[in-house]
Structure formats: structure tokens, C-alpha cells
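[Target chain]
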Amino acid sequence: MSEGGIIYSDEREESIPDYGSGKTRVELTDSNALHEVPKVSNFDINGDDEFQNDPSSPNSSGFTTVIAPSIGNDTFGDDMTATALQNCKKTVLSPYYIFLKCIGWRRCKAVTYEVRRTWPFMCCNFFWPFFLTVLLIMSCVTQILLCFSRDLIESNPPNSVTNITEITCSDHIFSSLVILDFLLVGTYLYGLYIFRFKLSEYLSTFIETVFLGIISRTGSYSPKNLIRSLRFFLLLGLLWIVYSLCVSIMRVFAHHYERDVDFEFLGRIPVIVKLILIVVSLLGFIVFDIAYTAAVINYSMQCQLMVYYIQSICNRIVAKEWEIDEAIKQVHTARQFMNKLNGHLSRAVSSMMFIFLYSSVISLWGLQKLQHSDPDLVIVATTSILGTIQWVLWLLLPLIQAARVTHSGCWLKKTALEIRTRPFSYRDTPQLDLDSFVNYCGSIQLKAKLASIPISPALVIGGSFILGFVMFLVIELDNFSWAPWL
């Protein structure tokens, strides 16, 4: 069985263990070539390595089976690639899977197959996502009862006589809170569906395919730089979660929830009850933030891998390591990965980007309600600005990565035209084959999509320029009347 350039061990492939050398010989019968691939222990292409060496597992064969991706007629399974893959698993995949397990989007790891089949372990894997879903629903209900969202709180200055802060909900509570809460919970459940039940998470498979296809061991497109870039996305996600939590806590203290508060729906409640409701809301914020990070980081990583994969195809075509037929097959594999990238994951990230856009606008709109006489002017304005930066950052990251993927697809088409107009390496190749390759590369669409819209660098740069220019005109012509405190 073959998928995405991966030749599995049950098709035309015979694994011969060599226990003395620590390597496994993989015989590819279609090319009658014998390659030696270093054994990458405890690494499974799907990321589920807990049953890799478990003798009790029904999938265990008693020795480590190496699945060797076939990139053309070469199998890049040398020690450097094996070390890079193992390093990537420990420093990229394992921390990322922690994100997924924290929000129930990935099952907990079992030590043995028998433990996995026990009732306590199965109940844990079932009740943890269920518990998180209930927590998110309670968090949304609590926000409505408190008239409190992480982007805007409807409040009045404390009464000068009683020193009691009155919090009243906006007349647009249904559109500002209820609909958004439905979208938040729906997005979490959709992510739970695609990451855990539908098994549409191809990150580990994609990582191995890209690593085994990289030619250069140094330079901009080396395995070392790829691992470094993937680590950067993980670190950025962790910092964003901490940053978001700090902004949420600042927003709570900015509106003096430590004072006596008279809520519109709850009235005056004990301080301990008020703190419990706030903690429930903050816990829901943390779960949502981890879900946002898991989806956005996954999409960004796959875009980064797609850029490296297309670049490796271009390099091999220019170096004529493939014949035209094999080059067409690899381009088709890239198209398959692109279709997966534009599938469920793209739709989940697109829905989250709508939330990011809405939250950033609401954070800016909160500045409009401030007055010069507001005693908390500085901290409230600072919190609103930091909240806007928080959402804009997570809004731009998928756009930038998608634009880079589309640019790489255009570069592949330019490479095809180059070998057709100046076929130095392919001078012995029939012109009809070169024309077929150019036509095929020109007919496929290697474009990343968000909300079913192809994202290109021109769209991102041009849209940012127009948006910035419109905002500048609004601020100048309106003379800051939208924010009288400025």
C-alpha cells in the first residue's frame, strides 16, 4: 500500500533484520536495489510509538520495522537523517502531542496493550474530553452571567457613595457573547473530531517524508534549520498562551472585581462565589488558548514542511536526480499533501481566524468607551491594546505561512519552465516529455487556502496596505472622536 510517497512494509518490500549491525536491510523489489537504513527505534510514522516494541501488541512483529519512504529511486536513510528524525520527534512531536493531550484531542499514552484495554484507562480517555467540554460550556455560561468576556467588559465607574461597581450587559449581548460562545465550543468540538476521531493529523507522516527528501545537509533548507523552525513555532505557541493568560488576568483586575459588584443577572453575590465564577472563566480561557495554539501551530508547521518539500523537489529536478516520469509522481505527491492541508485543518483554522478577527476588533472598540475621567484609564487602555496585539499575531501567522506555501508552488512552476527553455541537464530528454511536465505543473494548483480563499503574498501584502491606509484615514479625518481620551 502506498500513500504520499510512502511505501509500506507490506507492499513489494521485505525487511531483513540485522541484529549485529544495528541496521535493518530493506529490499525494494521494484528496483532490485538493496539499501541499508539505520534503525530508528521507538519512532512510528503515525506518532503512536507506545506499541512499537510491545510484544503483547497484536501489531508487534518481535523486531523494529522501519518504513522507508521512497523519494524517487533513492532511500535517504543514513545516520544523519535517522538522528535528525529522532531529534525532531523528541523536541517537536513529543511537546506538540502534550498540547493535544491537554485538551483531549489525543488519547493518553499506554505503557502496554493490556493497559490500554483496561476500563480505567478507557474511561480516562473518554471522560477527559467530556469534562473539558462541560468546563468550556460552563465557562461560556459564566461569562454571560457576569457580562464578562476576555475582550470587553461592560462596566460603570463605582458609585461615589456606596463604592459599588455596577456591571450591566450590553443590549447586543446575543450577538456579542452568545453567538461567539456557540462558535467557540463548536470550534473545539470540530477540532476534537478531526484530530482524535477522524485521524486527519498527518504531521508525523509529513515530517518523515520531508526529512527523507532533503538533499542539502547545510544551508537554508537543511534538516537542522527545519527542526529549528518547527521549534520556533512551538516556543511561540507556548509564549502566546502565557501572554494571553496574563492579558486575561489584567482585564479582571482592570475592572476591579475585587470590589463589591452588582451584576445585572446575578445581583450582589458573595466574594467567594464571584471568585469561583471568575476562575471557571479563566480555566475555560486557558483550554481555548491551548486549542487555538494546537491548531494554528499544526497548520504553521505543515506549511513550513510544505515549503521545504516543494523546495527539495525543485532541487532534485534541477540536479536531474529524477527522470521526468518520476518528477511528475513527486509533484503529484506534493499535490496530495496540499489537498490534506486545505482540508479539515484549513477549515478549523479559518473558523478560529474569524474568532481572532472578531476579538481584535472588540478589543479596539473597548478603547472607544474610555473617558478622561476614568480612574483606570491607563490599565484599561493598556489591556485593550495588548489584547489586540494578541489576536492580531495569531491572525497573521496562518496567513503568512499560507502565502509562503503558495509562493513555493509558483517557484515549482518556474523551475519546470526553466528546464524546458534551458534543458542543459535534460538535453537527452524528449521535448514531448518536457512539454508534458510543464503542462502538468501548470495545471495543478499548489495554493494554500483559508476559508476556501487561495492565499498569496500579493493578497496578504496588498490587503495589509489597504487596511492600514483605511485605518489611518479614519483616525485622521475623524480627529480621534472615536476615542475621546486620546
Remarks:
- The CA atoms of residues 269 and 316 lie 69 Å apart.
- The radius of gyration is 27 Å.
- The longest strand covers residues 13-18.
- The mean pLDDT is 76.
